[in-house]
Amino acid sequence: MAKTLMLLPGDGIGPEVMVETRKIIEWANTRGADIKIKEGLVGGASYDAFGKPLSDETLKLCRECDAVLLGAVGGPKWNNVDYAVRPEAGLLRLRKELDLFANLRPAIVFDALIDASTLKPEIVKGLDILIVRELTGGVYFGEPRGIEDLGNGERRGFNTQTYTSSEIKRVGRVAFELARKRRGKVTSCEKANVMESGKLWREEITALHAEYKDVQLEHMYADNCAMQLLRNPSQFDVIVTDNLFGDILSDEAAMLTGSLGMLPSAALGAPGSPGLYEPVHGSAPDIAGQGKANPLATILSFAMCLRYSLGQPALADAIEEAVRSVLDKGTRTSDIMAKGSREVSTSQMGDALIAELKTAQAKAA
Question: Any idea which residues carry the catalytic annotation?
Fold first, then answer.
């Protein structure tokens, strides 16, 4: 059955990397994926066209699709526009309106890029961690919040960390289900020793574990997790945590790989609702239009889309293996260059990946 994918190229290098991802989508369709494409504007591109970073019409189209693939948003061009209509506001609205509560951030070390990590090769070799971050609750959205004047030149800033049982359970369920398809271990991170919200988090995750006895569960304080990610990251499989800690821990885990620009991400909602897939890197306006952008993070985001929203896990595996093979052969964009590697442009990297996919297909025939 046909699936519909909404493409939102966005700003900066977003359109360039999306062009290369389209090549991979076309390849997937030759392998039976049957993906129909729609395209819209988001971020600064949407602001320039409509005066808002996400139009109601584009949002409506996103809701009607099976998944959304986004390039990047933002850039200095829009630094002086009102906060409510900044390019990033379009992305935040999209996450909120689609109720995308579970952010999936993989941290994978490709053997060919192992020397790019700041950690010793023996520490990060073979690393494959998936962080599941709660995305719509916690201190970023809790009320009350604000800055108040206390008088005598003194001010107070305050935010509220709050979670309900249902918010914790739904993201915990995502983590347990994913762990079942991986190595069968979930590490739940909070600060139950000093925070009531952390205590509730631990209690609810523990109770939920009764439905997933085939998955190993361990609890870890978030600060200890930050230390363990540097000390012994291979102990982790799936990490599930709240919005604030997930924001911090996922960035730390990403840098274990040595290349933030290589990493994909996903934001998932309720079953049957469209997921949002996007590279972790930003819009990189300093290199936009120069053919230097690395398209692999967006292409790997599409692979996640195939796996989690479009029902094509075998094609996702094929794309990820092709990326690994291309890197092993020394093909690099400028951001991941190493001694002895061959530097290629954005479009050449896309072409190299297509060639690798076709070679692997021919060998398997």
Answer: 140, 191, 223, 247, 251
